[in-house]
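Tokens as discussed.
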């Protein structure tokens, strides 16, 4: 006789109501073990973390019966510190911010966004880059060009044209056309309407490419053609080093 689905074992899925559990809760967060209380986890009722432990269980348990959350366990201790004592972390700010966003702990999110690290990234740098047309797409294009030229090479280079103003864009158009005729791939950034300079944008490009795991450097690139302006005012060579 076949066993009906209602009598099949549920494995480690929690089936009881959470209000029947002990107020002491054991957690397995990405392999890191924590012990805390239900009241701590539910301190901010509107958060995703509180919802995990409200009403019917929304989590599975590990082989030892601990509630399992599939997130980086290293940074959960900072989340708990905040829930227990309202202490805003001073270490691993960027990573803790990602976890605060995941758990949707709004007061912690707002306080982290006031820290210099997050404020500088979100309000200053990201807002600047949002004013640079196609910035993210150009970063990906640079990486594709570099990878395409990496065959049997230690380094590959990408020529980048950076123009801050419409006037600069017009001045370097002849140089761009000549480089196109030489079949050289050029990635163009700008123009933009914001205070940061060309050197600031170059630093951002290097920072964001390195954040993807690549080793790069850059230097002014002088075109071989003779132009009436200094080509290195606009052109830079980014070197990707593979080994």
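Sequence:
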């Amino acid at each position: 006789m076949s066993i009906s689905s209602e009598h099949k074992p549920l494995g480690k899925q929690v089936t009881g109501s959470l209000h029947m559990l002990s107020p002491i809760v054991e957690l397995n967060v990405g392999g890191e073990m924590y012990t805390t209380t239900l009241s701590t986890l539910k301190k901010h009722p509107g958060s995703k973390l509180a919802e995990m432990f409200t009403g019917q269980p929304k989590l599975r348990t590990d082989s030892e019966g601990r509630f399992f959350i599939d997130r980086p366990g290293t940074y959960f201790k900072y989340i708990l510190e905040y829930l227990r004592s309202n202490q805003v972390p001073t270490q691993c700010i960027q990573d803790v911010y990602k976890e605060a966003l995941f758990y949707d702990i709004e007061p912690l999110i707002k306080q982290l966004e006031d820290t210099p690290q997050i404020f500088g990234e979100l309000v200053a740098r990201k807002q600047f880059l949002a004013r640079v047309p196609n910035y993210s797409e150009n970063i990906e294009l640079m990486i594709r060009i570099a990878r395409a030229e990496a065959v049997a090479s230690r380094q590959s280079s990408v020529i980048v044209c950076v123009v801050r103003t419409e006037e600069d864009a017009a001045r370097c158009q002849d140089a761009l056309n000549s480089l196109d005729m030489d079949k050289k791939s050029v990635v163009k950034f700008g123009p933009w309407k914001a205070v940061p300079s060309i050197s600031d944008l170059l630093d951002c490009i290097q920072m964001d490419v390195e954040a993807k795991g690549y080793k790069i450097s850059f230097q002014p690139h002088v075109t071989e053609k003779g132009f009436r302006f200094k080509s290195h005012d606009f052109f830079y060579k980014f070197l990707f080093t593979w080994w």
